[in-house]
Amino acid sequence: MTTLALDQGTTSTRAILVDDAGRLSTLLALPHRQHYPRAGWVEHDPEELVANLCACLEAAGAVGDLAAVGLDNQGESCLAWDAATGAAVSPVIVWQDDRTRAETERLRADGAEDLVRRRAGLPLDPYFSASKLGWLVRENPEARRLAAAGRLRLGTTEAFFRDRLTGRFETDVTTASRTSLMNLSTCAWDEELCRLFGVPIEALPAIGASTGDFGGLGCGGRTVPLTASLVDQQASLYGHGCRVAGDAKITFGTGAFALAVVDRLEEAADDGPLPTIAWQKHGEAPAYALDGGVYCASSAVVWARELGLFADFAAIDDFAGAPAIGRGLAFVPALAGLACPQWDRRARGAWLGMSLDTAPADLVQALLEGVALRTAQVVAAVEARQPLAATISIDGGMTANRYFCQFLADALGRELIVSAEPELTAIGAAALAAEAVGRPFRFARAGRRIAPRPLPARDHAVFAAACAAVQSFGTAAASTGEAAQG
To answer: In the predicted model, is pLDDT for residue 6 greater than 70?
Structure first.
């Protein structure tokens, strides 16, 4: 039996086949365009995403023993569409998009954050879908017209895909948990949260489990059941083999995302990691996790290359000098703000400690260390709530960099397993889909192990001071901009 994983991510859509022995093969990988219409805005073309998914399904039509499909999605990216035609009436507003920062800050000033944290488990942040969906209802004329006619549908990309490809307007509980509109305790849409963000509850999809019978997908003239659907980071958690409380993984993609399994639903704190749903299998209670992220990881590395700081990734695999942070040079990767545990969208990226002898290689070294040190802040925040296993599993594009992986182990002060399999998100989606049809496959958690070396506590303190500096600057700059606009 073969299972198809459809990995619909921030930069590409990938079709990955997994056989009974857990062996993977990439069937098709299609990039899609990133649109930046204004400063802080990030969009995708929803029709381009659907077309890429359809191309993946068409390519899978040649697979003779295809038994099930698992779909993973971007999580917080969302849009509006017409219930009657299925046509999108807005672009996809991507999870990185910052257009609703003023609205979320207004809600915070009004004292709404406590309600959102208590019910949804999430802070007030443009990262999550709720403020984006409310913005669409207020600012998109076609969305307002459809709402008045009772034809508006709102949701994440996954709900849009499932509606278009299966004819069923549904979402799964992990994706709904990333909207700020679902009550974590009941796993249902919360009427008060919907009112707060201005999202009509009747326009939202039905919430269900992460596995089950979700309808058929057309694969080259035949129909194959969709039996798993969940957020990509939760799929990755499953793919890493994390099953019991304390198991944790970190994925270094566009951003860096750490998730750890917990044995119960954690209470939301004013700062730190976020309680979330890890997955929910059909007929079972939800499994829970703590989540923390760094908004810019590999995207910061690509940005540095585009600035001309280096030309070849092999050139930044090692550095001759001592760690940059130990020499007083720090980079804070807050290019889209700071996520866990600061949750400060006003913060902006910066190098601190530069001098006349600072070279491009020093800047890149500090950048890699900055992503690692930010990740260490996230992991420390998670461990304050949930003791973690001695070893953490990591994957993603940045884990190909030897210097980064060793410095990350040093910053975390714990052993790492660098996954030998780069497609753990796809493995997780496929594994859940295969289990749902009673055909689980075996896969091993394998990879090279990296032991930590001592990192002076002073280095963490210097980096914390750098983070505080970019937060102070961001607040001052935002106040200046608001005064100029006023």
So the answer is: yes
Whether 466 and 332 have beta carbons less than 8 Å apart is answered as yes
d(CA 470, CA 321): 26
Cβ proximity of 104 and 133 under 8 Å: no
Token pair listed for 447: 């990879």
Residues 370/463, Cβ–Cβ less than 8 Å: yes
Averaged pLDDT for residues 24-33 = 93
> If we measure between CA atoms, which residue out of 422, 68, 60 comes closest to residue 219?
60
The mean pLDDT of 445-472, rounded to a whole number, is 94
Any residues with CB less than 8 A from the CB of 298 and at least 6 apart, and which? 252, 253, 254, 396, 397, 398
Q: Judge contact between 16 and 4, C-beta under 8 A.
A: yes
Distance between the two ends of the chain, CA-based, in angstroms? 63
Angle between helices 298-306 and 360-383 (to 10 degrees): 170
In the chain, the domains with their CATH numbers are 2-230 (3.30.420.40), 241-485 (3.30.420.40)
Sheet of 92-93, strand order: 43-44, 92-93, 78-82, 152-156
Three-state SS at 148: helix
- Which pairs from 175-179 meet CB under 8 Å and 24+ separation? 175/73, 175/75, 175/229, 175/230, 175/231, 176/207, 177/120, 177/121, 177/276, 177/277, 178/75, 178/76, 178/122, 178/128, 178/129, 178/231, 178/276, 179/76, 179/78, 179/120, 179/128, 179/129, 179/130, 179/133
Q: How many residues does the chain have?
A: 486
Residue 269's CB is within 10 A of a number of other CB atoms, namely 16
User: Where does the pLDDT of residue 421 fall: very low under 50, low under 70, confident under 90, or very high at 90 and above?
Assistant: confident
Tell me phi and psi for residue 70, to 5 degrees. -115, 135
**What long-range pairs does 453-462 form, CB within 8 A, spacing at least 24?**
453/406, 453/409, 453/410, 454/410, 455/323, 455/410, 455/411, 455/413, 456/326, 459/323, 459/325, 459/326, 459/373, 460/373, 460/376, 460/411, 462/325, 462/328, 462/330
Q: What is the CA radius of gyration of the chain?
A: 22
Instruction: Name the helix (H) or strand (E) containing 175.
Output: helix 173-176
- Separation between Cα atoms, residue 116 and residue 157, nearest integer Å: 22
Identify the CA nearest to 12 among candidates 52, 59, 60, 67.
52
Instruction: State the helix-helix crossing angle for 129-139 and 141-149, rounded to 10 degrees.
Output: 90
Q: How far apart are CA 449 and CA 123, in angstroms?
A: 35
- Phi and psi at residue 405, to the nearest 5°: -65, -45
Q: What is the pLDDT of residue 480?
A: 64
